[in-house]
Amino acid sequence: MNASRAAGWLLALLVVAAAGWTATRVDWTPQIGSDFFFASDDPALREVQAVAAAFPVAEQLLFSVRVSGAPLDDADTLARLGALSDDLAAVPGIGTVWSLARGPGDPAEVVAGDSPLWSRLLITPGADDVTHLFALLDTPVDIAQPDAGASLLAAVDAIVAAHDAPSFRVRQSGVPHVVRQIQQALTRDLRVFSLAGLLVFGVLLVAIYRRPILVAGLLACCVGAGLVTIAMLDVLDVPIGLLTANLLTIVFVLTLSHLVFLTANARAGDGDGADDDDPGLRAIRRTWQPSTWAMATTLLGFLSLHLTDARPLRELGTAGALGTLVAFAIAFGLYPAVLRWQPPGARAHGAAASAAGRGPLRRALLIGFVVLVALLA
What we know:
Elements (H helix, E strand, L loop, with lengths): L1 H23 L18 H12 L5 E8 L7 H15 L4 E5 L8 H5 L4 H7 E2 L2 E11 L12 H14 L4 E6 L1 H35 L2 H24 L11 H21 L11 H25 L7 H23 L1 H6 L3 H5 L2 H6 L2 H18 L1
Antiparallel strand pairs: 1-4, 1-5, 2-4, 3-4
Helix pairs in contact: 1-8, 3-6, 7-8, 7-9, 7-15, 8-9, 8-11, 9-10, 9-11, 10-11
């Protein structure tokens, strides 16, 4: 018993340390490189890298402009295209800009399709109101590094926003822009889904157990397991990536799956052991074997992702395997201490028994939870 409580205190200190580490040291921005989907030893990636080394090409930002109310070779349209091209060319880091107003000798010839090179490069076949711009960068933008190229891309975003209008629609693409969009979307998803998961499970746990200390302990263990996993990955130099941006939610659910059974078994005393008065030890004794098998199968599932060539799947395999082990350790090392904090009445009676005598309240809670899930969805 003393050893179990000592382990609980050690894990509690580990959770506190992990919270401090993640708050001060971890970069929560998902690290997405231009080759984000491939493993470093992938044959296809190495072949592309070899071709790029033999025939180096500057990285590009691509733009399309849809013009309405005037032809592409109209003087006003060409003036607007020229202003957009000049503004882009003035951005530090952009070397060359090609557009209908910046490059071809006769824009009317390009629009008419009489220039084989420029017409194919700047005009969309079958769309006589769309033209393209190409911006070549002086140096590659390593978007995988924190804040790399942020000023250049932010300046380009501002220029696009300034020139965009109902009659002059400007849209941009290119590897640096797309990778940055993915990065921003993953950052938003990390924040939204983590908070939404905490809210949904928090409301559900309150409705089921209605014990503040128990619910707080459940949520603290789930969040703590996620923070410990993130901190350990940071120490191992495994960044948050394409598929691990939702790792907090994954570890939260993995931990909670153990905790709900520990809680149920702690409340279901069987009187068959000397530690029957200790709900923590009773829960461990009744739960450890099925939870171990569940943990083992989940662990093998994550480890099997290392058989793939895709880098995001390998990163998810590493992070998920570590999260599976941390979830099991937190559930069986720390949560039994939470169970011991419960007053005697809470240990003796399950939530189902107390809810059975409150039919209307239970129905109201169920309806409220369904409405909440629908709104969040």
